[in-house]
Amino acid sequence: MPQPQTQAVQPKVTYTKGDIVLFRDVERFWLGLPGHTFVGRVERSWTHADTRKVLYDLTELSGNRARAGIDPDYMRLLPATDAMHDIDTAPLSEPDTGAMTPAAVAWLRQHLAQDAALPAQHI
């Protein structure tokens, strides 16, 4: 008996202002041109007058360039948990800070500096 083919289905996502997303310039992608995938920040959403499809205006973060009318089918949310994974999983028990990523070390330094600035708590 043949096995049914499965296809990944991307759930419908509504993006909000300030979301960080990965988006693809679909024309460049399908033409095989380089530089088709970017990281951007959502600036606003709007509904196309003819198609009634919700589209997004983004700011491309690498060049601070505005991109208008991006189709959400070619966007993916970049969750903060992924961006912060290296900090969240930093080997704090390691005596060698070289085992940590620079982001983890920077976060720890900032966190320790904030703790040192707090007045002592008396119980």
UniProtKB/TrEMBL annotation:
Keywords: Plasmid. It comes from the Bacteria. This is Uncharacterized protein. The lineage of its organism: Bacteria, Bacillati, Actinomycetota, Actinomycetes, Kitasatosporales.
